[in-house]
Amino acid sequence: MPAGTDFPRQLPMPQVLPGLTGDVEQALRDLNDYGLCLIADVLDATMLGRARDALYLAAAEDRERSGEVKGFALDSNEHNQRVWNLLNRDPVFADLAEHPLAIHLVRQTLGWPALLSNISGNITEPGAERGVLHADQIFVPEPWPERPQGINVAWCLDEFTAENGATEVVVGSHRWHRGPTEADVDVPMIPVEAPAGSVLAFESRIWHRSGANTSADRRRAAVFPFYTTTVYRTQENWFLSLDPAVRRNASETLLTLLAYRSEGFGLVYGESPQ
Questions:
Q1: Domain parsing of the chain, residue ranges
Q2: Is the separation of the CB atoms in 168 and 211 below 8 Å?
């Protein structure tokens, strides 16, 4: 059948979210079963404050320079701000990108080595409309393979609620092996509510979008590092955009995620770059 005409009217599982958990192995089971998982209390108050302050500061700097990114293709309205290439903005974002929990989820989902395709911030302000329904695996020809080719490990810097624009998902859509089309606009979705400091991880085949912020005065900020297997180009061209100081101070893990260290691909005379 043409893409979009085989959307199952009977969803593959009930539209309920997995519960918040502190058990990483349970989170991995949820990721397999639901296409997403929720992990509670990952960031302590100090780390959460650092990351939140750094993201809001970067957003304010973009606005002052008239460099703010609103009306991004997936969130096409003026009340949603994207902050790109966070690695250049504050070291705390490198800490999030290579956080042990994030790397464990990446290793178990994609294998290792893997690439950090991009790391961006998203601030949904009051008045923001719902974003565009999509899946992150648009770079893979359909039908998609049985294993995901990417994973988002989203850091909730503010509480995610249905009112302030929490990410909305189609639970179980990772089993359909294709992205959504215009024929799927009526698919049931559910907002992912989670406390600040928690992680929302979802694999690249899950259908999702930014929620509408219908609150009077509550913003919703998150950091979205997106990882892929090593056979795909990164969305962010790190070799052109990365501040040299970030590379000089990067750990071996981060250098691998940025393809400055490599295995099998990106070699120099048969060896990993030094």
A1: 20-257
A2: yes
116 and 209 Cβ atoms separated by less than 8 Å: no
User: Roughly what angle, to the nearest 10 degrees, separates helices 24-34 and 100-110?
Assistant: 40
188 vs 14: CA distance, rounded Å: 10
3-state DSSP call for residue 183? helix
pTM of the model: 0.92
Whose CA is closest to 211, among 80, 24, 87? Answer: 80
CA-atom Rg of the chain in angstroms: 18
Q: What is the pLDDT of residues 147-188, one digit of tens each?
A: 999 999 999 999 999 999 999 999 999 999 999 998 998 899
219 Cα distance to chain centroid: 18
CATH architecture of residue range(s) 20-257: Sandwich (2.60)
Length of the chain: 274
Region of 32 (left: φ > 0; alpha: ψ -120 to 50; beta: rest) is alpha
